[in-house]
Amino acid sequence: MPDHPLTAESFARAAEAIESSITRVIDGKPDAVRAALVCLLAEGHLLIEDVPGVGKTMLARALAASVDASVRRIQFTPDLLPGDVTGVSVYNPVDREFEFKPGAVFAQIVIADEINRASPKTQSALLEAMEEHQVTVDGTSHPLADPFLVVATQNPLEMEGTYALPEAQRDRFMMRISMGYPDAESEVLMLRQREHINPLDALTPVLGAGDVRALIAWVRGVHVSPAVEEYAVGLSRATREHPDLRLGASPRATLQLVRAAKVRAALDGREFVIPDDVAALVEPVFAHRLIASRGTASARGRSSTETIGAVLRAIVGAVRVPLATR
């Protein structure tokens, strides 16, 4: 990146370079690639839920390979312990004192693979790290790297050996997305490309960790008018008051919705957020945090996920959109 101050245009170019790098590996999934980039630059975390083998971990690895940042991968299994994630204090007989051995969470990009295969106790080891960017062991706090991003993958709950993520854990993920199966053309291309080489091996970083920090700092200054702020709050409050939902969006969800909207605006080369930025992100930011009322989904012949999606689309259509946004 150039040494002169960032502008909306240079921000968009830098972000496009990361996107282009990822799409060399993840073909035909532009929305998933954009979601990963938004979470990185908005200082959030990404939850990818889908069946095995559709590229969830590959997306996380492609993002990590596209920026020159430290990467650690944690394979979550039923026997994984919290200390494996956070680290432990080990007695040093030479110095006759305990010393801290960092766990796998001490990296700038942490890939939490199949997070819902671990026990709730182990899942909770990430709570402090994701919210406060630190880990506390034996009363001592240890700061994490900057930037810090958790990309977690999870299998659908109906699959064997999974534990549902608790509400507090889900609320710490900025967005939840699904990869879905590739179209026929992309799948054929994948077969040809990966016959002799792994495309990840050909990726080189297009930006350094310092450049990513600069992008994050710049996007914080994207302007959000009071009218757009009120619009975001109105969307959140509508989820809390809707009769088909027994758990609505938290204040953290509102904050992360606005942060994500800032990045979306910046990716489009704007220094200000418009209502469309907010509305477009409501479902990926809110859906995984909400819980449908008991009996509502079955009474209407829908799954809980379908019910929540329908409710959010209805809310976006009902909440008044501000006319003046700047």
UniProtKB/TrEMBL annotation:
Species in which this protein is naturally found: Microbacterium laevaniformans
Signal peptide (residue range): none
Keyword check for Membrane: no
Top-level taxon of the source organism: Bacteria
Name of the molecule in the record: MoxR family ATPase
Residues covered by the ChlI/MoxR AAA lid domain: 237-301
InterPro entries listed in its UniProt record: ATPase_AAA-3, CbbQ/NirQ/NorQ/GpvN, ChlI/MoxR_AAA_lid, P-loop_NTPase
PANTHER family: METHANOL DEHYDROGENASE REGULATOR, MOXR FAMILY PROTEIN
Every ATPase AAA-3 domain range: 45-175
Keywords: ATP-binding, Nucleotide-binding
Assigned protein family: Belongs to the MoxR family.
CDD domains according to UniProt: AAA
GO molecular function: ATP binding; ATP hydrolysis activity
Record carries keyword Cell inner membrane: no
Coiled-coil intervals: none
